[in-house]
Design brief:
Radius of gyration of chain A: 15 Å
CATH superfamily of chain A: AhpD-like
Largest interface: A-B, 31 and 31 residues
Structural class of chain A: mainly alpha
CATH class of chain A: Mainly Alpha
Shape of chain A: globular
Order of helices and strands of chain A: HHHHHH
Oligomer: homohexamer
Largest sheet of chain A: none
Helix content of chain A: over 70%
CATH architecture of chain A: Up-down Bundle
Chain lengths: 113, 113, 113, 113, 113, 113
């Protein structure tokens, strides 16, 4: 696991803990729900991660994209599958997604090396 | 095929022909590309339709959602798979997607009947 | 209560029931959470409805705006408070919110009459 | 001028008057500013209408698109210029703009006939 | 006042001056209007800052969020009020707002310390 | 050409090559189309760059804005033309575009010096 990925995971975890430590039940419920929807079900976890990745891409949320790129790699998505998700996101969301595609492909490649 | 679905397909096709009849090569290329990305590849066509559906949902494009709901049904997505895509889109995109989820579920049900 | 408002509430309720009747636990949890966040708390319910209205306006979700306009009226927001929410939403979200402001003001006025 | 265009203009004008009749100075200032930015300046009014059209398209605001399509026609934009704006908007904003492009091209054609 | 907040305010002020120094009357009018809408009125300034914060959150504008977090603290919003705004924004805008919620909560906490 | 601009162009070019080196034909076609729409046509290249800039601004894509600011300067847009595009984008897209306007104006000025 690259340093970049480790740092991302660590910072994300620390900030999540900080948010969850606050006394707001609705925020906690949302965080729980956000984990639940990506679990194996009628669709398997890999397909769900790709759905998370594609939706994050068209909504252009870099942190969300980074998270789902990491998860998609860990769960066994292939290069061609990853690129096809990028292609669909790019066509659906337009050229404004390209900077995010560049960064996603860069991270994908770094994790391979 | 319900009347609603038939009408949607007919109107979509007619307007697409009108747009393609215009003399702009870039618009034609975009339309061709928009068809190409959903074809079977490393990911199968069903998964790609679900990616198209989820991205359309979070971007809240009713016509796009209608199109991908119809395609997802035709290509054999199950009730549970469809609902899981709705759930992911709803969590990623928030409560503002709910009116679109309502209409998508309504169309899904109508096509079943 | 105007016919338009009654129809909106009835259709919304019927579609919500249809969605909730489906067998997806995450969708149900999201719907429950969506109700919970607008309840009286540190901020009172009226302020929360205005927050729901302003966020719906800048995200340009007509159904969401209609819902929060009705709720804001029922819960006792005044004309001036309503207009100030519209003004903030318009400045934050830009001229693309204007068609939604027009429809929101129209509904607000109809409910008054 | 087609009936559709007349109706659109009339309804828009009536609702604008209703909004302006309300007692909120900031909303009035925003409406004034919204008119001012499209006036002849360093860029001529036609170019500004095309900028208004392109931005409305990528933000997918149907009422805004209709307004700028009408204005662009009135101010003398040609078929090829119009199509090129549609092409740029489509590439920048992605396939989710296509339903709006269809409707814009349909209105453009109706105004020609 | 933390160094981070001081730096943010200083840079924001300098860039605002640079933009206002340019010779465009419409940009100046927009900046003036952007200040005006948050002033005490039918709704008090605190409520308006919370509306500014919630709309900035769902539109995922980090600079805007930072600005309104600082203003909300200065104007006396409590921890529980702040968290409830975050919760509403998160439910309305979905999980793509979470990275912004993390950063907003982090800044809120830093200002407390 | 400033160091900042050189660095931006170099990194953009390197990442584009990395993306194009991947084996996905649809991504390549999208990149080609993204170049094609800004070429001289019924509208000249300068007008098209301004359309690219305005749409990037309202969609708040910093990398896209940077790219079109550089291109607009290189192709001979004047200060007043640039500011008018900023003003239209700001009015259409709202105060959430202001942080991007600040950065765009800053880059525009740096390129002048």
């Amino acid at each position: 696991m690259s340093d970049k990925v480790k740092r991302f995971k660590k910072e994300r975890e620390e900030l999540n803990q900080m948010v969850l430590a606050r006394d707001n039940i609705d925020i906690k419920r949302f965080f729980a729900l956000d984990n639940a929807v990506y679990r194996d079900g009628a669709l398997n976890a890999k397909t769900k991660e790709l759905l998370g990745l594609a939706t994050s891409l068209v909504l252009r949320c870099d942190d969300c994209i980074t998270y789902h790129v990491i998860r998609a790699r860990e769960i066994g998505a292939t290069d061609a599958e990853f690129d096809e998700v990028m292609a669909i996101g790019m066509v659906v969301g337009g050229s404004i997604t390209i900077p995010h595609v560049r960064r996603a492909e860069q991270l994908w490649k770094e994790m391979e090396d």
